## 1
Amino acid sequence: MTKKDFGGIVNASRTLMCAYKSDIWKEKFKEEQFADCTRAEAIRMRDELLQYIGE
């Protein structure tokens, strides 16, 4: 079996909703920019997951 043979669900709703407060993004985004920050965090998370599974 390979890593691709396993499925999974990632629940990151709170991480995404509060991304603008995280150390990663708090210097780059203000609270009013939460939508842009949420998008940036979702892309970061996607890239990290793809890196892990070897995509």
## 2
Amino acid sequence: MKERIFSTKSKVELMGVKNLLGSEGIDSFEINNVDSAYAGAFGYYELKVNVDDVERAREIIERFQSEN
């Protein structure tokens, strides 16, 4: 089972977090909830990870956000 750990309106930010998690050995699954009819003005992107990786993934994301 997968759990959402991150969401953003920025595709660039999403890819950065996804790459960061991948470099730490955590597989993530991307979901695009952006309404393409409005050029990305509505909706968001989200990342999900396996339930077993949730705690570690959140720690990695929090550390990344506090450094930037």
## 3
Amino acid sequence: MGVENPVNPPVSVAIATFNRALMVAEAVEGALRQSHAPCEVVVSDDASTDTTVNVLQQLATADARVRVLRHSHNSGGIDNWNHAMEETRGTYIAWCSDDDVFEPGHLAASIRFLEKHPDIGLVHSGFADRIDSQEGRETIYRPLRSSKPLLTNAGNLLWYMIRYYDWPFHPSTMVMRRKVWEQTGPFNPAYSLADTDWFVRAAERFSIVLLPRHGVLNRRHAGNWSNRLGSARMQAEIFEIVESAIGRRWPAGSLKHTCWRIVWRANTRLRLLLTVRARIQNGHAEAAVSSWKGLTRQTGRKMPVWFEQWGERRIRHAASRRPSCIADGLQSVSPL
């Protein structure tokens, strides 16, 4: 890779893609346009069947920094994420989902902060929603959570996950030191929300800072991973991820383990109830019922069958009295 420039340390951008030719082209171009230019943009294709590979090859021909990798068979997603990350070579690694686009100055601001704070392993940022619809494209900047950098580490990780349960982080804003990836380990394919599990494991080892800026345009569209996965399943995975973190932090049966588990489970049940209410108000009966079943089955104590069925009837009746609202550009659950 040559001699490292201490003024402009090398950063690799990792992108994993599958059948998103136009979107991944925007993601790659957004990375290449950064004022802190990446030394490479590594794109791992998961055996796409559309024109994604042709588009990527054109980008690689136009700019030698674009490295295109390809699986011969579809891996299912998470293994492809790991492949993209593992093939990077920079001192820093930035992740970008194939349907998102870096905001101008994202890499420069992130690496500048990391260079000034050697005790911080990873930074992430706020984001804006880019909503694509038949009427056109709209960009909505989400309010920043803090006017100052917000620190997360092993000491306050559980409070952070409780406070920011809906959106603990946006994966496409993550910029990290290479040692964070190497010591935390790869994304765990046991989870569809493998990035959330990875974020929690990273925070157990390293200090993480949320920067008070917008780092990425988060594209909202029908093909979003979060849309395909579904709110109830996502929340069930978040529940399990944090339960596992509690188990790693304190031995089962200890006072702190018991107390934190009670707090976490109460928080999850409240969040699921709020999701049920929101889905009822939008007339989404199936989504509301799915969240209700998650609450009754997957939050540490299974409710009686009669109670679950009673609740389902009530939910369906309430949702049927409201017009269905299809527009759901701003979801409240952590995206991919």
## 4
Amino acid sequence: MKRRLLLVLAVLLGFTLIAAACGDDDSTDTSPEGVDDTTPDDGEGSGSDDCERTGTVAAPVSVGGDTTGGDASDVTAAFIYIGEPGDAGWTWAHDQGRLQAEAATGAKTLTINNIAEGSPEFEQAVRDFIADGANAIFATSFGYMDAMETLSGEFPDVAFFHATGFKANDTNFANYFGRIYQARYLTGIAAGAASESGNIGYVAAFPIPEVIRGINAFTLGVQESNPDATVTVSWTSTWFDPAVEGDTAQGLLDNGADVIAMHQDSTAAGERAEAACARWISYNSDMSEFAPNAYLASAIWNWGPYYASAIESVSDGTFAGGGQWPGMDTGLVQIGSLADDVAAETKTLIDEKSGEIIAGTFDPFTGPINDQDGNEIIAAGEVPPDFADEGLSLLGMSVFVEGVVGSAEG
């Protein structure tokens, strides 16, 4: 990957996907699994006999297990989390990757939870870790980026790794993320095939390129299996707030959606879908156990191999900053389990598209693709560049594709 691209790989990526500590005061659950206790009592609570589907609960995909790495016992790697690891979600996935990397490399790892973006606690945590001997710092939230840049200049002998951002240097400061939109596309195929109404709801976080890109890829997958279906987007302006996310999902369900997707870290949208006898696409980790009758599929992260490789690069002296944005071919991003009632032909289509994505012969954003107004934005056979100073790019995506209902401006 060219150095220029490495340094800008996530421009306007915004970030993303993290379990922000912004739970509603009425909810007693502050962990990423985010159980929402505000589901209306409509006689069809979670697991209702009216919604129960026999044989729909597939075994959750367990990421990792085969993570390998060289001896890096001379590395002490510190991980800074915006939330608690909990049982599922963004921070949980990172923490699973940390544990896998620790076992694979022999490195010592340290963690701290619930560090707010832009807070003085973040800088103090980094300084404390370095004082305790940390020579690699991993910060897993977009809002940590500017502080990481400053601290990397102050501590040139420490390796700084920032998830989801776009700033980096060519010495000791890197950014990293993954092409999760590839897995989003595959889950869209499952959602489109499952929707009887053709009305699919999407509980969206913030109107930034990473979220918009995911919605678009998901919608293109929906259209692959159900060309007449639409995806209605409702914004929450949250990364983690079970009450808000549950209520937003409920609004989509009340308007006729029979499948719900989401971009937050809680399971609230899935719980509302289950109570309404609808279906659900989860995100960040395989959440099939949390709303088993609603669950269809998930787009998930497997951070272990990346973290092992990154820690090893610090140990062997090959780390030199820059950026990485790998995809399904590396295993960093994956599709989770499919519900057992997903039709055989749908599974076959998902397998075919997955194979093509991994082989590099297909990208979800292969044209022709139109925007919401029917204007062609990607020509036939073309794929937008990852980054461009002008025009459409994957990392700067700011418009919705045809089939999305709602505003990309939030």
